[in-house]
Amino acid sequence: MMIKIARVLHQMRLHKLYLSTVLVYLLMAQSLTVFSQMQNTNLSFSADWISCPGFSAKEYGVYHLRKTFELATKPNSFVVHVSGDQRYRLLVNGTPACFGPARGDLRNWNYETIDLAPFLKSGKNILAVQLWNMGSGAPAAQISYQTAFILQGNSEKEKIANTNTSWKIIKNEGYFPELFPTSRLASYIVGSCDSVDFKKYPIGWEQENFNDQAWKSPIVEPKGRYYNEKRRLVPRSIPMMEEKEEPIVGIVRLEGLASVLLASYPKNGMIQVPANSKVSILFDIKNMTTAFPEINFSKGDGSKVKLTYAESLFDANNLKGNRSQVEGKKIKGYYDVFLPDGGDNRLFRPLWIRTFRYIQFDITTGDEPLILNKLSSVFTAYPFEQKGSFTANDPLLNDIWTVGWRTARLCANETYMDCPYYEQLQYVGDTRIQALISLYVAGDDRLIRNAIEQFHQSQIPDGLTADAYPAGGSKIIPPFSLFWVSMIYDYYRYRDDPKFINKYQVPIEAVLKWFEFQIDSKTHMLGKLGYWNFVDWSFPKQGIPPGGLEGNSSILSLQYVYTLEQAAALFSLSNSQKSAYYLALARKMKKAVFDSCYDQKTGMLADNPDKNSFSQHANIWAILTDCVPSNSQKVLMEKLMANPTLTQTSLYYRFYFTRALKKAGLGNLYVSNLQPWQEMLGLGLSTFPETSSPTVRSDCHAWSASPCYDFLATVCGIDAETAGFKTVSIEPNLGKLSNVSGELPHPKGQIKVSYKKLADQSFSADIELPAGLQGHFIWNGKSIVLKSGKQTLKFPF
Question: Which residues contact 651 (CB under 8 A, 6 or more apart)?
Answer without folding.
Answer: 676, 688, 689, 690, 691, 692, 701, 703, 704, 706
